[in-house]
Amino acid sequence: MGVRKRAPDLFGAKAPDGGPTAKETRATVQSHPVKRVVSGALAAASVFAIVAVAQPAATANAAPSPSLQAPPDTGSSSDALAKYRDLAAQAEKANEDLLKAQDDLTAKQGDLDKANAGVNAAKDQAAQAAGNEKKYRVDVDKFAGASFLSGVQMNKLSALLAGTSTQEFLERSSALDQIAAEKDAALSGLSDAVQKAAAAEKLATDSAKKATDARDAAAKLTEDIKAKQQSLKDQTEALTKQYGFLSKSDKASQGDTGGAAPNVPAPGPQAQQAVNAALSKLGSPYVWGATGPSQFDCSGLMQWAYKQAGITLPRSSREQSTFGTAVSRSQLQPGDLVFYYTPVSHVGMYLGDGKMVHAPTSGDVVKISPLQNNYVGARRVS
Question: NlpC/P60 domain: which residues (predicted)?
Answer without folding.
Answer: 268-382
